[in-house]
Design goal:
Layout: H1 2-31, H2 41-60, H3 76-103, H4 105-110, H5 117-143, H6 152-179, H7 183-196, H8 204-208, H9 215-222, H10 225-239, H11 245-269, H12 273-276
């Protein structure tokens, strides 16, 4: 009996893996379907955002970009994009994962499959975007004399940890959105607040040097996992150094908690997906 059950689980896992790959490829193909620039949009959007923020904060407000340590790099554009790309992955990945189950209502009603592959495929699709964008950023840094390739293995670890962190939240929101369609709308408000609570357009030193931000507020600020993810990416691509062990530990714990809670919520709610849809 155990052998039969084991073989069944192995077949289910193989089927889920195959479906996950096919759904991810479908997401990637449809993302820029019939657009003239195609995959170039994966760089056009963040570059346009970078140029707008650079103009506003550098030339209008006169914000002085921090000096990269030990890279010596002092460029607001590179400072911004190294934090903006992982944020875009979080924002796009969560938005896509939240709507993934509802968007595939027809498929869910027709056949049985592991429903978790739907938000997983959405997150993996946007993770592909992140890899392409960070690859282009790495090449650009080489042209300005920053030898970032030495730290790319550390970057891959950070990318994987963030992927699981985003997926865990996406599983939770994707399941809840089946029952409460307002989740998609609340998410956009949450992302707006979360954006400014994350050091993307400003360095963390600005927070810690602000006398109006007291000890308890700083503690709450540091509980935001995206603070640590953003700083890890910035360490690698702007400062040219490996993130600290404590940063890796915090990111790993955040990813583990997110995945554990997300899977628990998803499994609790998925039984009635077909009825609710």
């Amino acid at each position: 009996m155990n052998k039969v059950a084991s073989n069944t689980r192995a077949k289910d896992f193989a089927a889920a893996r195959s479906l996950l790959i096919n759904l991810t490829l479908r997401e990637n193909r449809s993302k820029y379907k019939r657009s003239t620039l195609g995959w170039a949009w994966s760089m056009v959007n963040p570059l346009a955002t970078m140029l707008i923020f650079t103009f506003v904060f550098l030339y209008v407000f006169g914000v002085d970009p921090p000096l990269g340590s030990p890279s010596g790099l002092k460029n607001f554009g590179f400072f911004l994009i190294s934090g903006l790309l992982p944020w875009n992955f979080l924002s796009a990945g969560l938005t896509a994962a939240t709507g993934s189950v509802v968007a595939n209502a027809g498929l869910i009603k027709k056949v049985y499959f592991t429903r978790a592959v739907l938000p997983a495929a959405s997150v993996l699709s946007w993770n592909t975007n992140l890899l392409i964008e960070l690859g282009v950023l790495s090449v650009a840094l080489i042209f300005v004399g920053q030898f970032v390739f030495v730290y790319l293995p550390a970057a891959l670890v950070v990318i994987v940890l963030q992927m699981f962190f985003v997926l865990g939240i996406g599983l939770c929101l994707g399941a809840l959105n089946v029952y409460f369609r307002d989740i998609e709308h609340f998410l956009q408000i949450l992302l707006l607040l979360w954006f400014y609570a994350t050091p993307i357009i400003y360095p963390t030193s600005l927070v810690f040097s602000n006398p109006r931000i007291t000890g308890p507020l700083k503690t709450v600020y540091l509980l935001n996992p995206m603070v640590h993810f953003s700083e890890a990416y910035r360490d690698i691509f702007y400062n040219l150094r490996s993130p600290s062990p404590s940063t890796f530990f915090y990111m790993a714990v955040s990813a583990l908690i997110s995945m554990t809670f997300g899977l628990w919520v998803f499994r609790k709610l998925e039984a009635k997906f077909a009825e609710e849809l």
